[in-house]
Structures are given as C-alpha cells and as structure tokens.
Amino acid sequence: MKHSSRNPSILVMAGEASGDYHLAALISQLKKVLPELKVSGIGGDRLESVGTRLFHHYKDINTIGFSGGLSKLRKVVNAYNTMKKELTSGKYDLFIPVDFPDVNIRLCKFARKAGVRVCYYISPQVWAWRKRRIFKIRDRVDTMMTIFPFEEKLYRDVGVEAYFVGHTMIKDMAMQSDRRRVREDLGLDMDSWIVTLAPGSRSSEIERTLPLMLESARQHLIKNPQTKYVIPVAGPHLTDLIRHIVSENDLDPLLFHGEASSLMVASDSGLICSGTATLQAALAGLPHVVIYMMDNFSWFLATRIVKPLLMDPDIHVAIANVLSIKMEQSGIKGPISAIIDSGHQIKCDECGRPLFVPEILQDHATVDCLSGWLNEFRSDKNLCDAMKLGFQQLKDYLIQPDGSKSAVEVVLRMLPN
Question: Which homologous superfamily is 175-397 in?
C-alpha cells in the first residue's frame, strides 16, 4: 500500500562512501525545496548529517573481494532484512537506491511488489560486466538517474526512463578551483611539492594499498627531500587503522578528514586507490596513477573466471580511463588523444591498449613502479600538462547543462503532489 501523507517520505540505500556522498548532496538540495521531507535508510555520516535516520551504517556492510565478505555476512543479512521490512511497511513514497547493485537490484524487486516507486541513482556498471542485469533493472526500476552521459542512451534503448543528471563532484570542484587558496585554507606550504596518498575507503583496501604507498613515498622522498605527503581519511572509523599503518612506516604524512577533493586540488601528484577517488583526482586536475589490488584468491577468481565470463574485455579500473575510452568511441577527441599528441604512451598492463591514466594492477604494484611514476610526474612537465588538458576535457564531458534534468528535479517529479 502506498503511503499518502502531506510530508513525503523516502527510503534510501547507500552501501558505500561514494553513495553516501552523492545521496547526501541530493537530499540536502531536496530539503531546501521540501523542508519536511522524511528520509530513512542505510548510509553514512554525510547522510546522517543532512537529517537521514540511519538503520545501519554502510561501514558495517560494505566489503571488497570474496574473503572479506564472509566476515560481514551476518551484518549484511540483517541490513538486507531491515530494508525488506521497511519497503513493505507502506510508509514510503519513493525508494532511492544508490549503485551497490548486488543488494539494491534485489531490493528493487521488493519495492516493485510493495508498490513503492524506485528512482535508482548512479547506474550499476552494466556496460562493464554482467550486462544482462539491465533487463532486471528495466523490470524493477521506474527511473534511472545516471552520472555518466553515455549511460542514458544505454537504458533508454531497452525501455528504461533514464536521465543523465550530471556529476555531483563537478559542483564541488568548481568551488575549489583556486589552488593557492585551497592550500592556504588547509594550512599547507605554498612552495612544497605535495603528493596525495589516497588508500581507499574500505579497511581491506587500506590494509593492502597504504603500506605500499608509504614505502613508495619514502623511496621518492630520498631523491626529493622537500616533498610533503597528505592522506585523505574517508571516514572517522578508518582513522585508527590508518594511524597504525603510518606508525609502522618511516614517513610522517599529514592526515585530513573529509578533505579528499581539496587535497587533490592542492597537490602536485598522487597515488590513488581505484574507486571514486580516481574521479576526484581527475576532476581536481591531479596527475596520478591508479592502484588496484585484491587478495590473491579474489584476484584469481576475478581474472580467470569472472572477467572471461562476465566482463567486457576492454574494462578498466580507473573511471577516467573508462570515460576517455567512451569519448573516443563516440568520436570525441579526448584525453587519450591528448596523451598521444604530447608524445607519451600510457598502456594497460593487461591488454596493452592506450590509456589516459596509468593503472597499476596487482603484481605490477611495486615500490619501484609507483615511486618511478612519482619521479616522472615531478620531472616531466609536458606529461603533466597533457594530463591536465585531458582532465579538463573530462570535466566538460560530465556537465549537464539542462537544469530540468537535474537529480533534484527528477526526484521531485516522482514524489506525490
């Protein structure tokens, strides 16, 4: 039974830090139009800060890899059952799931049965792997809001009402374009060479990538003693873990909470764990490499079984590379061309195709490799200039000029009058 009330009520599901970020920005804007809007669900600190009533925090249920998932299975099941109960309670006018497809696509089925409209925010990567999921989405979702331009047509071609709504980070970056002022605001030295080390937002990612980043940074520091290192901490729950790992390494980076985009704007180069941070780095105009590491069992399954059977053979872990390839395929001379035109070659370790941003995967992620890239960014201004040109092209590509297609307007049209 559909809920009918003067004050609309929304149920949300953001299972990781990136979803919490995007959805909190949307809810904040919605509440400016509908101050009495009620929002409940699963998310993180950002959603809670804009007035969302949380049933569970995403940190209790998100994971990466197969082995990591087993330790959180009970919490995942409890959260899933909570959401099923809420969806069938008759209390909500709209369900907004964000990405996190393995859970959210299933929850959409219960929403459809309960008569709750579904406005899915941030498309699962159906263009990259398990492409047939798009038909489940078509049967369970009323509207899809995408943050990448090419995804809108993908959904409309199979009969899903879809809108490219622009990317939340574009607005955030527009407010931080003055690099010198950002450094001043963060208390960073104006003349130092600053490197961002972004180890991820999951404990398992941080445990794998941060020691490698710190050792690579230490080696880079031997040749470049004036370098400063900064680490964005994705959430307060990760602080102790990061401090513990840092304490075991002979380096003294500065830790910042909730300042990832600002740090990237302020920095000269970076080592970035795969995920949303790769797009943050691109939109900040930061020359960087992307690091992707899993536990050995998960890597074996992913490369030997999952990728051959379920994934696009041309898939890549850096979002900047995915977007750059899509631009080239649609006839836009974009970032990959900018790198080639500058006389440089950045190739994929796995397939050998030209890329825009270096991707350092699993066994290729060594101290010598990463410190070598840090040295390259420091010494090759031509390469950095070509990357910055490509980053600006990506930023232009992700802007939605039509205000009627903004995420706020799409959601408002789906709520009862």
Answer: Glycogen Phosphorylase B; (3.40.50.2000)
